[in-house]
Design goal:
The protein is α/β, with parallel strands linked by helices. The chain has helices at 11-15, 18-31, 38-51, 62-72, 93-97, 116-122, 142-151, 207-216, 238-248, 251-268, 295-305, 321-324, 334-342, 354-365, and strands spanning 55-59, 80-84, 101-105, 127-133, 158-162, 170-171, 174-175, 182-186, 200-204, 275-276, 288-291, 343-346. The protein has a 7-stranded mixed beta sheet, sandwiched between helices. Strands 10-11-12 form a 3-stranded antiparallel beta sheet. It has a two-stranded antiparallel ribbon with strand order 6-7.
Length: 368
């Protein structure tokens, strides 16, 4: 009896830093450097340097990152913010937290990233920001997106990158996350750069934005107990700063490993009913996602073969109750809807044994 092929195993990546982290944690423990502080600051410097971003603000999650990017840009009631209809909900919560209106754009059928034409069609004089999601690690078409925003007459629209799934992804030689006004990262444990718990960050080249986010994450204060604005408690834990700085050293290697697995899938998968999404150049290969119109029977087949899988994501945002009343009929986003009903993510993680990759390929190619 063959062992099953898990969808994910985070331990191979976390094993790379196990000793260094545990030793560092013992020191941190004695110092009680638990909330914010030197370990977070050290990681912020390292991650900013890695990306080529002048400012990096460590936070408690990627959801908080998008929220504070919007809040620092002054987004509020009456403003519209465009977000793709097909993404993880964390891309969009921040719009509601700010009291603004989410406006959905469709995505491209073959990449699952925002469709620049759909984006152009939903802009209004009230559009204040666009959240571009580099979904599954694939860089969104930034030049076409920027051209749409530039062509729009009226006040400038802010560009926020949701790079929660795209640590180390590259667009025309530049790091994803550094191409707009703010880049938002999640370090949720399963991400390409995953923490030992919850964490996130915003990067920006704007000193003013960075300064505002620094205050917003810390109860709206710069000087202790002088709360100048509505604030939040969104600080990063010291332990996460420590862990992430140790792990960042391995990010390129881990991403190269993911790319190798994706390449093996692309070379080996040969089933006309299973179509991988276009990863494009520079992808961080967070997930390997295929479109499978007969998904239900395909999943039953994978179950039988002991192959794990994920569905990212089974519903689109306009279908979810917190968003339903705000933006009409899901049928207005046909590509997003079709993707949500057909996507299947195959196992892909740092350290996945090549024998497991082969077993996935055999299982997919053997399905009729
Ligand atoms: C595309 C995307 N945006 C936002 C988030 C939110 O990040 P977090 O879970 O750290 O709040 C995630 C991850 O969960 C994500 O995948």
């Amino acid at each position: 009896m063959k062992t099953s092929v898990p969808f994910q195993d985070l331990y191979p990546a976390n094993r790379l830093v196990e000793n260094a982290f545990l030793q560092g944690a013992a020191k941190l423990y004695r110092e009680s450097a638990f909330s914010g502080g030197p370990y977070v600051e050290s990681f912020e410097k390292a991650f900013g340097r890695y990306l080529g971003a002048p400012h990096c603000l460590g936070l408690n999650s990627g959801t908080s990152a998008v929220h504070l990017a919007l809040a620092a840009l002054g987004i509020g009631p009456g403003d519209e913010v465009v977000v793709p209809a097909f993404t993880f909900v964390g891309s969009a919560w921040g719009i509601l937290y700010c009291g603004a209106k989410p406006v959905f754009a469709d995505v491209e059928a073959d990449t699952a990233c925002i469709d620049p034409e759909s984006l152009a069609a939903v802009l209004t004089p009230r559009t204040k920001a666009v959240i571009v999601v580099h979904l599954f690690g694939r860089p969104a078409p930034m030049d076409r997106i920027k051209a749409v925003l530039k062509a729009r007459k009226g006040p400038r629209i802010a560009l926020i990158e949701d790079a929660a799934q795209a640590h180390g992804a590259v667009w025309k030689g530049r790091q994803i996350g550094t191409l707009g006004d703010a880049g938002c990262f999640s370090f949720y444990p399963s991400k390409n750069l995953g923490a030992a718990g919850e964490a996130g960050a915003v990067v920006t080249k704007s000193a003013a934005l960075a300064e505002k986010i620094a205050r917003l994450r810390n109860h709206g204060q710069k000087v202790r107990y002088q709360h100048e604005m509505l604030g939040f408690n969104y600080r990063m834990d010291g332990l996460q700063g420590l862990f992430l700085e140790k792990k960042l050293v391995h990010l390129e290697r881990m991403n190269a490993d993911r790319e190798g697995i994706a390449a093996a899938y692309l070379a080996g998968l040969d089933n006309p009913e299973v179509t991988p999404l276009d990863g494009g150049p520079g992808s961080a290969w967070h997930l390997f996602v295929c479109r499978v119109p007969r998904r239900k029977t395909f999943l039953a087949h994978l179950d039988k073969k002991g192959v794990g899988y994920g569905i990212h994501y089974p519903l689109i945002l306009p279908e979810l109750p917190p968003f339903q009343s705000r933006q009409g009929n899901p049928a207005r986003y046909p590509n997003a809807l079709a993707l949500s009903r057909s996507v299947v993510s195959l196992p892909l993680y740092y350290g996945m044994p090549s024998e497991h990759v082969e077993r996935v390929i055999d299982a997919v190619d053997g399905w009729r």
